[in-house]
Amino acid sequence: MKSPAAFFFAYASPTKFDALAGRLIPWFAVPAAALLAIGLYLGLFVAPDDFQQGDAYRVLFVHVPAAWMGMLLYLLLAFYAALGWIFHTRVSSMMASSMSITGAMFTCIALVTGALWGRPTWGTWWVWDSRTTSTLLLLFLYIGFIALQSAIDDAGRANRAGALLALIGVVNLPIIYFSVEWWNTLHQGATIRFSGETRMPGEMLTPLLIMTAACWLYAIAVVLIRVRCEIRERVFDHAAQRVVTR
Amino acid sequence: MTWTELITMDGHGFYVWTAYCLLAVALGAETLILRRRSKARRVEATAAGRHLRDRTGP
Question: Which ipTM was obtained for this model?
Answer without folding.
Answer: 0.85
